[in-house]
Amino acid sequence: MPRPEVQAPPEIFYNESEARKYTTSSRIIEIQARISERALELLALPDDGVPKMLLDIDVALERETEGDLLLADMGEGLGLRPGVMDGAISISAVQWLCNADKSSHEPRLRLKAFFGSLYRCLARGARAVLQFYADNVKQTEMLVSFAMKAGFAGGVVIDWPHSSKAKKSYLVLTCGTSSIASLPKGKGEDGEMCSSDDDDDGDESNDDQTVGTYGRNRSNKRQKVNKKNGRGKDWLLRKKEQMRKRGRDVPADTKYTGRKRKTRF
Questions:
Q1: Domain annotation for the chain: domains and CATH numbers
Q2: Where are the beta strands (DSSP E) in 102-216?
Q3: Which pLDDT score, from 0 to 100, does residue 86 have?
């Protein structure tokens, strides 16, 4: 069966009958609760006795959920005040942003809007744990890339990496950390056994087992000018022609124009 996010947009796929599965199926409820508990564990909230404000980016209107509810498209950004959340979790949701369900949808812009607004609404030092089902390695890299561009540090934690059914991926992000954040160890990495039926409709791909830890550290060096970024011979000839039209004194073009010179010692 094709993955849910490639069958139809979420507002169409999760119709009355499909949504009922998540509200009435004891098996799905148990699995979703187990994943949520793991996300909360990875969130690593401090046990200081102070109440915390948490954001759950999930489908909640169909259940008797405590707390304030906000109905919105996460691809258009989260309409929350800066720094108000002490943590955030999301279960089986963010991979939907990698698809264009409408002609106006651009996955990269939607990912940018989502991660940017998520970063802004979290308190500095807070974590976000986003469980997701990637269709391939490219989708995982896309999610990580836009999270890092928004300012997060972190990476992907995989539970049961060698099980095609029980495997679960969590994007663990820390807000406002300049250095690379350490990640907790995924379950099953030390040979621990797992149940083979711990799976919902995600059916996660088994080809993204190489996981890294990332930070937003960027080099201050300017990129080297070359043909790949549009500044090759053709670019140089166009610039010289523009200068000639402005009446400037420009050297004549030869076969050596635009050729890289050898380094002299």
A1: 4-214 (3.40.50.150), 229-265 (no CATH)
A2: 122-132, 153-159, 168-174, 213-214
A3: 93
DSSP state of 97: G
What is the 8-class DSSP label of residue 113?
H
- Gap between the terminal Cα atoms of the chain: 64
Kind and range of the H or E element at 10? Answer: helix 10-13
CB 140 within 8 A of CB 157: no
pLDDT of residue 144: 93
**Residue 243 CB partners (closer than 8 Å, separation 6+):** 250
Residues contacting residue 89 through CB under 8 Å, at least 6 positions apart = 36, 39, 40, 43, 54, 55, 56, 57, 58, 128, 129, 130, 131
Mean pLDDT by runs of 10 across the 265 residues of the chain is 63 67 77 90 87 81 64 85 92 85 80 94 93 89 93 91 86 75 74 48 46 42 48 82 84 80 59
Strands 213-214 and 153-159: antiparallel
Cα angle value 17/77/133 (rounded, 5°): 50
Q: Which two tokens stand for residue 175?
A: 């807000």
The residue type found at 148 is M
Q: What is the largest CA-CA distance in the chain?
A: 80
- How distant, in Å, are the alpha carbons of 142, 227, 232, 255 from that of 261? 38, 14, 13, 13
Task: Report how far Cα 166 is from the mean position of its chain's Cα atoms.
Answer: 21
Query: What H or E segment, with its residue span, contains residue 206?
Result: none
Which two structure tokens, joined as six digits, stand for 115? 């991660």
Q: Other C-beta atoms within 10 Å of 59: how many?
A: 17
